[in-house]
Design brief:
homopentamer, 303 residues, alpha/beta, two-stranded antiparallel ribbon, 13 helices, globular
Chain lengths: 303, 303, 303, 303, 303
Amino acid sequence: MSNAVEQILANYAGENPGVIGNLRRLLSTGTLAGTGKLVILPVDQGFEHGPARSFAPNPKGYDPDYHASLALEAGCNAYAAPLGFIEAVAHKYAGKLPFILKVNNSDSLGGPDEPCSALTASVEDALRLGCSAIGYTIYPGSGLRNEQYETIRALIQDARSVGLPTVLWSYPRGAGISKNGETALDVVAYAAHIACQLGAHIVKVKPPTDFIEQKEAQKPYENVPKATLAERVQHVVQSAFNGKRIVIFSGGAAKGANELLEELRQIAKGGGNGSIMGRNAFQRSPAEGAKLLRDAMEIFKNA
Amino acid sequence: MSNAVEQILANYAGENPGVIGNLRRLLSTGTLAGTGKLVILPVDQGFEHGPARSFAPNPKGYDPDYHASLALEAGCNAYAAPLGFIEAVAHKYAGKLPFILKVNNSDSLGGPDEPCSALTASVEDALRLGCSAIGYTIYPGSGLRNEQYETIRALIQDARSVGLPTVLWSYPRGAGISKNGETALDVVAYAAHIACQLGAHIVKVKPPTDFIEQKEAQKPYENVPKATLAERVQHVVQSAFNGKRIVIFSGGAAKGANELLEELRQIAKGGGNGSIMGRNAFQRSPAEGAKLLRDAMEIFKNA
Amino acid sequence: MSNAVEQILANYAGENPGVIGNLRRLLSTGTLAGTGKLVILPVDQGFEHGPARSFAPNPKGYDPDYHASLALEAGCNAYAAPLGFIEAVAHKYAGKLPFILKVNNSDSLGGPDEPCSALTASVEDALRLGCSAIGYTIYPGSGLRNEQYETIRALIQDARSVGLPTVLWSYPRGAGISKNGETALDVVAYAAHIACQLGAHIVKVKPPTDFIEQKEAQKPYENVPKATLAERVQHVVQSAFNGKRIVIFSGGAAKGANELLEELRQIAKGGGNGSIMGRNAFQRSPAEGAKLLRDAMEIFKNA
Amino acid sequence: MSNAVEQILANYAGENPGVIGNLRRLLSTGTLAGTGKLVILPVDQGFEHGPARSFAPNPKGYDPDYHASLALEAGCNAYAAPLGFIEAVAHKYAGKLPFILKVNNSDSLGGPDEPCSALTASVEDALRLGCSAIGYTIYPGSGLRNEQYETIRALIQDARSVGLPTVLWSYPRGAGISKNGETALDVVAYAAHIACQLGAHIVKVKPPTDFIEQKEAQKPYENVPKATLAERVQHVVQSAFNGKRIVIFSGGAAKGANELLEELRQIAKGGGNGSIMGRNAFQRSPAEGAKLLRDAMEIFKNA
Amino acid sequence: MSNAVEQILANYAGENPGVIGNLRRLLSTGTLAGTGKLVILPVDQGFEHGPARSFAPNPKGYDPDYHASLALEAGCNAYAAPLGFIEAVAHKYAGKLPFILKVNNSDSLGGPDEPCSALTASVEDALRLGCSAIGYTIYPGSGLRNEQYETIRALIQDARSVGLPTVLWSYPRGAGISKNGETALDVVAYAAHIACQLGAHIVKVKPPTDFIEQKEAQKPYENVPKATLAERVQHVVQSAFNGKRIVIFSGGAAKGANELLEELRQIAKGGGNGSIMGRNAFQRSPAEGAKLLRDAMEIFKNA
């Protein structure tokens, strides 16, 4: 067995073998199997931003089969999506490609005053569809924070009882946080820490900038190295229980391949466990998208 | 994806993707991955016959780690065992080696008057331990037949709802069946058919002899070719929904390697989906046991 | 058995033996075992204030193992933390170091308009993780007071039914309370009394100042001795059912060791049952932190 | 922490921290704390054989306080008893002396035709009373075997979910087993193995004789060393998952101190994890009973 | 408060205040209030033996009001009866006369082969009717023993959770017990012990004879004083947790007043907590019945 994987799993001692097994499955699938690193393809942008904004750049993306096929063929560790997209492909890919069922989602047509996604799938759905984990988005900073923390607490408990780990998208957002603050180093590190404290098995955050948002955090951050993304990633990883929880970083908005790969190199250098990149993959042509995913894996493989 | 596997899974259309995914996992693991064939290591003999009768020939077998390790290293599709043996290794092997949790078991110290195993594990245990299927033994012919059929009906339903397929050990036994009759062709074929009708996803029966047990079956079997084991296996496979359900054959009591391998060749020739062999593997020395399993896989691989 | 402990427990007659047993365990662990006094290490600041603000002064604190190890080695009665921090160490320390699972938590990125922590763990979690008590924060004075009182009422009931006592953090806060008022003698005494009335087994409040916040309380407090912290602690203890409920005091923001130890001497002199000090312990170097905890215990031991 | 204890607990990886914590508590209490060995005082004979047959030799034993006090003062790891005896002392000893609540019991006034104890306490009782484990008796060989296996399966699952391990008394008995057979080596080893397969965390069996009961077991036992009790204990320990489950041996009927201590030396030499001795302790005078328990601990301490 | 009552209640520490409160109510009502002794009027004979066999000697007994009135006016501690009799009077007497709702009953028209009463009332009924306790009959020795023990275990748990103590009628009966054996000293003492182990708060047994039923008990009883009823009662009380559970004795079949009162004197002398006498009271004329009850109280008052 892979030492890298078993060392990571040792940090989850106390979890039942079902949860451990699914984490091991995620870490033992695809090109990065056994390295302790993950590249995951997430496709919830259709739900979050609308279909054309998401799929017009590469219209094959309208088809749910495209993404599962892309994830499998490019060698991703897993594919994450909302209920409908998973349902459309599960019978064909279950048992080959690990799914992360995104159980809450938001759309950009409107909603509650405070940031809060809707529950759109269940733990039962995850089992029925042969998924290896559930995913959930929290918005620390939201006026509806309490509702979200309480919901995910119950979901994590239910998912664990049936052997499913939980991936937490932790995206600070709310009245008290500036736009720049959403990716500020103090805020991203805080978001990662909250996700770990809530019991997340895998934490997903955005790559942090060197901005410090909170006044009270200015002083403590004076001596935290933060000039390079690698240094900032290192601090986020440290904030995630000193690296004892898996932390992956989102790719964010579509960007140039070189820029993106450099970002990944920094994430890898800083000790991040991997990348979860959607638009940068599926908004490119099939060949380019797959190549980018493979290039990303190459970076983490050699980290 | 493997054509052989997908052709088999097409016979299970209508099952949910969780069940399909776990069947695909069983068919996509180990040396026989993608061939549509299975070699499974079952170790419930300690429970059924007592520890020394099971493990004295190769005392490493007293240790639950030995069997999981043997199954993994020899390249088996799965490892089947009672609760305790799975619990002892699950944290280490879950996500790598598919487990089949044997949820009922019997011992030879005594019990009810009619053949009937005790429920010794649950569907919840299977999820908690990261298993890919549950296994259950029915004794068609037992005076407690109805209790067993009704129990397995409920278990299959529960297991399905959480994405787990069911493997049915179908072993005719009871006051109305002679000792020879337990492996008679008509009885084994009947046992396979009953298991399929009960909703089993995978059926396990014993290799049939050319004996015909039931008087009423004598005439219909006059024209069924049954001279060779391959022919008889073919009939059993036919009886399992014309080959639309996976049928595997037990190895039975420990025997010479040549004899066993010839038996497997016949099973493969007759269209059997594989073999589930315990004592023949774990009662040999580690090297011989692993070699036998690998030889068995070689036979099915080339079938 | 310790007279001091049994005298305290006599005030909890009517509770079931499970609750009594866990209280006895808290009072029978560590350096202060048998004295009826408690020094508890709480580490929820990562969640409440963010990781760097909490752990940058002593970066070992990013690691959940550090705190459990510090609590055990310094001889604390118990270690209190949110779900994630407990989950990360429970398998290693359960059965040796009593845990208090903090089941609600707040962060400083934003939240509801009125002070109200989110439920972030459950009584089931406490049992699964081998905890000896649950902890909960109420904010008397909050516009969401009723929700909090009703939630804790149900939690205390559930926790008791499985043998777990409840520690209540009672921190007055809200539109009608001035900043100074939050630690005013009348307000802190009131907060302790409310916690007792809600059924708390152990009450945690802040050391009170000699400020009197409520106009209606000015007159009754004229004759309450309040010049020294010891006198004020004595009044708080009196307000906690005449000393029949265990009252411990928080250490508050990090401060000089001498200042802190003098505060503890006053608390001990006033009859407080102990101290729950986090930042003052874990924001120092390991050696200094452990020394401070041990010095604190020395004070209570000789009280 | 104790290496001996942590090595044992490593065999229970996959269990939740609550279960691990209670096992650690049992192994970290009393004179044998940290040695990996256990001496437990069980007092269910009043229920099983009647009060005078149990307590007339030392009438102090009629009083439930006597036994808890004896267990605590002699330095036992735990005290095991039926509901009533635990209820009578739990408020006084919970949190100091680990209790094992015996949740089924039989009496000798009559009952069902086949050996089967009655459920006399619940997992909820165990939590309410502050117990560290539940205990249950199975009678392999009984015609009511299935009912017992199914009941304990459910109880173990429930107990685990609230952090409680299970101790299984495994006493073969039934129409197919001769009186001598009940303590035959093959039968006792089998009983230990069944208990492990059912998911027991701690197995209690009787010291085996060199008799072999089952015809089919004669041959496999030819080469199993069995001349001394130590050799036979070694085989039972091997049958308990190669020593990966804790196995303790009952003291049986009251006997001479020298005879008993020699038996314990053999158990210790054979690798047994300890002894659970009732009548030999409480049917002696207080001083002699305590001395015998201490002598027993001395033997295991030096093993 | 009464020392005698509080000394008894101290043996029930660990019970919740609701249960304690109802026990205190039973011990603080009527002529014997505060003495620690009880005389209870039970009227279930109509159900158990038929109305005429029960009430023809004093036809006022057909009327449920008669018994409640008798119990109240004679100064009994409580009145015990089946559902219907309690329902008929509860509105009038609840709050004045403590009721013990007998929740199972048998009739003499026929029933199961083995002794086993039917559940005829519920814990909910007891609350609805303002009762202070529930009562239940077990038949140790019955082939349906397990069903009865398991039922009462659940009932005691439910009753406790709503603050109700349980009175257990423990009447050995079954194929293995001779007619004389049902009141043999060893059997009655055993029955009392079993009831205590099952968690009964108050135990009701029959006055024992000096007969010893069980062969294995002959020797242990050689040195137990048993010549007088007082001595035998003393042994039964000892068998009931050394007097730490309340034991009351039934009056049995109607008999002469002198004979009965002498029996009560012996019970009082032996340390029995009182008497529960039905037929001897209600089958006499109102004046005689009340006198007998008062005479009985006088005996216990002066004990």
